[in-house]
Amino acid sequence: xxxSAPFPPPVEPDVAAERGRGLRRIFRNVGVLLGGRxxxxxxxxxxxxxxxxxxxxxxxxxVVMLYAFARTIGDLVDFQSWQTLLQxxxxxxxxxxxxxxxxxxxxxxxxxxxxxxxxxVIAVAASLTLGPVLGWPPALHPIGSIYCVSTLFMAAAxxxxxxxxxxxxxxxxxxxxxxxxxxxxxxxxxxxVGASFIHLAVAWMLAEATSCILLFGLxxxxxxxxxxxxxxxNTTADIVPDLLRRRIGQDFPGIWRFAFVTNAxxxxxxxxxxxxxxxxxSRLGPTSAGYYRIASQLAAGIAKPGTLVQQTLYPEMxxxxxxxxxxxxxxxxxxxxxxxxxxxxxxxxxxYWLSAPLxxxxxxxxxxxxxxxxxxxxxSEVIGICGLxxxxxxxxxxxxxxxxxxxxxxxxxxxxxxxxxxRLYGLDGVGPATVAGMLLLVLLQLGLVFxxxxxxxxxxxxxx
Length: 464
Description:
By secondary structure, the chain is an all-alpha fold. It is built from 20 helices and no strands. 81% of the residues lie in helices and 0% in strands. The protein is globular and about 55 Å long.
């Protein structure tokens, strides 16, 4: 008897047309998200610029350190439940199995609740005991514990998954600007209430709460509009046997493992973002932490057209995986990588001319070192853009463990390198360390994608 592959390719009458439709949806959604970023990015830089001028670099850096701490703890306990909802809820939703979709939805919400409560508890305990390790001055300790409550509002992954699975990226774009608008309003109110870092920290807390409430409201509205809330409350009690009697794991094999692995992956991925801010603040002080935050925001904002592609890839890949259209899925990833990489390289050239004037405008400094770190961080973003389909590919093909392994290896390399470079070169050392870490991560994930593809397409002999 002839050999067969573990995933026989389905009949695909028009592969090119289907892949073309997927790419069009991706770039249409990217365009929608970019519309939100076109508003969000300048407003974000504006409020940072105003805050620095009203408070000074040191006090602004204190708020940045608080935010980075809360966000790091939030990432630490975040189950990335939107990925669980996409992976395990997409098929029952597409097949009209509403009860099964509701079970995955409730499971995802429970993960958010557990993560939010755990985040607040851990953050408060750490703020009371680890202040000196974090480099917090005495002024941060009282407000630091209060600010930790905002961690609860950072656990809002399920409504994000709902809007992605329903293809409402326009609502995500709207919601994504709300936190920035509230921060800007709070910054503008500082001259009236008193220009202090405590008042600015309160404004940032309100921004997180407002953004979270709006996100849940938008997701619920979309569920109701599409008739997906029918019997949702009547079957709420099903969550008890699903969890206590382990039915959710029996009916959705691998869902618990997937949830914990995506949580671990999110924890490891934070070393490139908020954890770096914490390290910079603890080693070089609040002012450097504030400048690093602005440089990273500027680099991420310039590279955003490329990075947004990744957010829109997950639903498209989930569709192709459901249909076992592996060839189309890998070709879609290749085309998305080439397109996003081309965008990233073009933006890198643009940033070479714009980074210094923008930094001068935002923080009022002509220091070439500030522009240099921005270019380094943008270089890291461009490398990440070129490899952006790799993680969605591994996640979609249920290789979440491979993603975690790649990030573990990368973290073991990156953190010591970052500390050594900071000791040797100060803030100038953060950029090269970040580029080296991102390059290693992309190469590791690329190797794992090739390995997974070979495993799925390797013929398995069947005895006659």
